[in-house]
Amino acid sequence: MRPTREGYIEGLLEAAEMDKRVIVVDGDVSRSTGTIAFKRRFPDRFFNLGIAEQNMAEYSAGLALAGYIPFYSTYAVFAAGRAWDQIRTSICNMNLNVRIGGAHGGSSVGPDGATHQALEDIAITRVLPNMTVLVPADSNQTRQAVLASLDINGPVYIRYGRNPVPEVYNRDIPVVPGKGNLLLEGNHATIVAVGVMVAYALEAAEMLAAKGIYVSVIDMVSIKPLDTDLLLDAAEKSKFFVTAEDHQINGGLFGAVSEFLSQHAPCRIIPVAVNNRFGCSGTPEEVMKKLELTADIIKKKVEISLEID
């Protein structure tokens, strides 16, 4: 198990070696997010603007206009939330090549409490025109998401966490915008998950298989653009869907999947997500249990929907 932030910094260092246009813009949290390793290796390409996220977004927009590829990196709750207007107007409106590293996404920053737990960031970035939204499941996939972002035209939001999570992928599996990954195949139901919930979805699938219930598990690492072909294929085989995300029930993965399937393959979709509340202080595991974001909850949602006792 490794924190996804380790994959983020590994990807940054590799990207910087490959492309001299890569720059990191930091919000005085480089030790916490891991970008201090970038500062040590590339001191002339690292800029700490202090706790001033709106300035960071505007500064990154200027760098992009000058031909650079800035990675604007800080806590997700501040990167996406505090600077949303600047991201919307100065970055997305001009379709600039700014990469936003949303560190400590979801409940991964558990002990810091509700103010620092980004549970709305997917929604407020996904809604913006031109924005690509990637939510990797583990450190290896986070590294690949960073590398993949170099070839994307326009702004990219990459959400990653602080606490260690199980490794689902090896280092060689690429991230492709607009493509998810089918990790398991079954015909009773389909679980679509992102981030840390991918590992929980696989765990839930294992528990269900022990009871003779076989589900497909999709890692929808690319929430925008969405892998609509993969969803349509799953809709032909499964009775219903369960979505699983460390995010508010509104506007995130559940919203994206529901918006598409309601128009093209209407079916039942049950969310496992944060139900219209803020987080709380505790270890990430304690917070996720409190928010009902566990493998057991995913399993129960499948069983209830299949009317199994």
Outline the structure in words.
This protein folds into two domains: 2-165, 3-Layer(aba) Sandwich (Rossmann fold), CATH 3.40.50; 181-305, 3-Layer(aba) Sandwich (Rossmann fold). It is 39% helix and 21% strand. It has 13 helices and 14 strands. It has helices at residues 4-18, 30-33, 36-41, 53-65, 76-79, 84-92, 121-126, 139-149, 197-209, 228-237, 253-264, 284-290, 295-305, and strands at 2-3, 22-26, 46-48, 69-75, 99-103, 132-134, 156-159, 164-165, 181-184, 189-193, 215-219, 222-224, 240-248, 268-274. Helix 8 (139-149) links the parallel strand 6 and strand 7 (156-159). It starts with a strand and ends with a helix.
Based on CA inertia axes, which overall geometry fits?
globular
Q: What is the domain tally?
A: 2
> And the CATH topology of the largest domain?
Rossmann fold
What percent of residues adopt helix (DSSP H or I)? 25-40%
Name of the level-1 CATH class of the largest domain: Alpha Beta
CATH superfamily of the largest domain: Thiamin diphosphate (ThDP)-binding fold, Pyr/PP domains
Give the topology string: H per helix, E per strand.
EHEHHEHEHHEHEHEEEEHEEHEHEHH
Kindly report the average pLDDT value: 94
Computed over alpha carbons, the radius of gyration is 19 Å
Structural class: alpha/beta
Query: Would you identify the regions where 5 or more consecutive residues have pLDDT less than 50?
Result: none
Report how far the terminal alpha carbons are from each other.
33 Å
- Strand % is 15-25%
Strand order of the largest sheet: 3-2-4-5-7-6-12
CATH architect. name of the largest domain: 3-Layer(aba) Sandwich
Largest sheet: 7 strands, mixed
